[in-house]
């Protein structure tokens, strides 16, 4: 069985073969734009939108409450984890080369979505515990800028975990299905904004989480490409 050193050497060999044909991984511009948007939201919109959410129409509140938990990662991780296992078994048992190629693509795509959602979520959860921003339910008592690290769920507002998952899923689907990337990204953005409507996060939390999820899934796609794992479906 391949150990860690062997796995890393295998990845390095694949990177040497394929990385020259893929674009470089750039993150500074994305990070700068996100920081600017987060700061603007904190200064100008966080408090106002939190108060406005208390007076939103009933239909909008119900819609937000009904859809917001799509941003929980368990369902996407479960589905893609099962799909990966099924695809790997089918790949091993397939006789025709074309069939094996289709199952290989299915396994690669499901692994890509799984890792994008899982790893971005883990990083986001670690960061939010360290930052310790008070959530909107504490707004009246502590305001929008109270921070207390490692103090429990009510002090884990920044960044939004649901929004991170929404961003990672939206970008992953946009990569896998580019023909529908615009509506997918718009729907993902709406799902992230429901975190404000249900009173769980501030706008800046949502921007940070959604942007990070988008970025992580995009960079993951480049990582896969640089190591020769194609996310394009095989030709029929």
Architecture overview:
The protein has 236 residues and is mainly alpha-helical. The chain has a single domain (25-226), classed as Vanadium-containing Chloroperoxidase, domain 1 (Up-down Bundle), CATH 1.20.144. Helices cover 70% and strands 0% of the residues. The protein has ten helices and no strands. It has helices at 4-18, 28-44, 46-52, 58-67, 74-93, 97-131, 139-142, 161-176, 181-197, 203-226. Helix 4 (58-67) packs across helix 9 (181-197). The protein is elongated and about 65 Å long. The two termini are 34 Å apart. The mean pLDDT is 92.
Q: What name does CATH use for the topology?
A: Vanadium-containing Chloroperoxidase, domain 1
Number of strands: 0
Number of helices: 10
Helical percent range? 55-70%
State the order of secondary-structure elements, H for helix, E for strand. Answer: HHHHHHHHHH
This entry's quaternary arrangement is: single chain
Unreliable sequence segments: none
Biggest β-sheet, characterized?
Answer: none
Mean pLDDT across the residues is: 92
Architecture (CATH level 2) name? Up-down Bundle
**Strand percent estimate:** under 5%
Structural class: mainly alpha
Shape category: elongated
How far apart are the first and last residues' alpha carbons, in Å? Answer: 34 Å
User: How many individual domains?
Assistant: 1
The first-level CATH class name: Mainly Alpha
Q: Over the alpha carbons, how many angstroms does the gyration radius reach?
A: 20 Å
């Amino acid at each position: 069985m391949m150990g860690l050193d062997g796995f890393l050497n295998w990845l390095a060999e694949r990177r040497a073969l394929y990385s020259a044909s893929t674009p470089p991984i750039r993150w500074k511009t994305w990070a700068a734009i996100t920081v600017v948007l987060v700061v603007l939201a904190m200064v100008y919109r966080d408090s106002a939108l939190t108060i406005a959410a208390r007076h939103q129409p009933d239909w909008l509140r119900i819609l937000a409450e009904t859809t917001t938990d799509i941003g929980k990662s368990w369902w996407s991780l479960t589905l893609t984890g099962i799909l990966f296992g099924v695809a790997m078994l089918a790949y091993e048992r397939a006789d025709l080369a074309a069939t094996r190629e289709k199952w290989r693509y299915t396994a690669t795509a499901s692994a890509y979505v799984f890792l994008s959602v899982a790893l971005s979520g883990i990083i986001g959860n670690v960061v939010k515990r360290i930052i310790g921003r008070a959530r909107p339910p504490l707004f009246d008592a502590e305001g929008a800028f109270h921070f207390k690290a490692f103090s429990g769920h009510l002090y884990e507002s920044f960044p939004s975990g649901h929004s991170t998952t929404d961003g990672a899923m939206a970008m992953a689907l946009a990569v896998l299905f580019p023909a529908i990337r615009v509506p997918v990204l718009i729907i993902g953005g709406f799902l992230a904004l429901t975190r404000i409507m249900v009173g769980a996060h501030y706008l800046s939390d949502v921007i940070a989480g959604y942007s990070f999820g988008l970025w992580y899934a995009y960079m993951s796609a480049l990582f896969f490409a640089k190591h020769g794992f194609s996310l394009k479906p095989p030709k029929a």
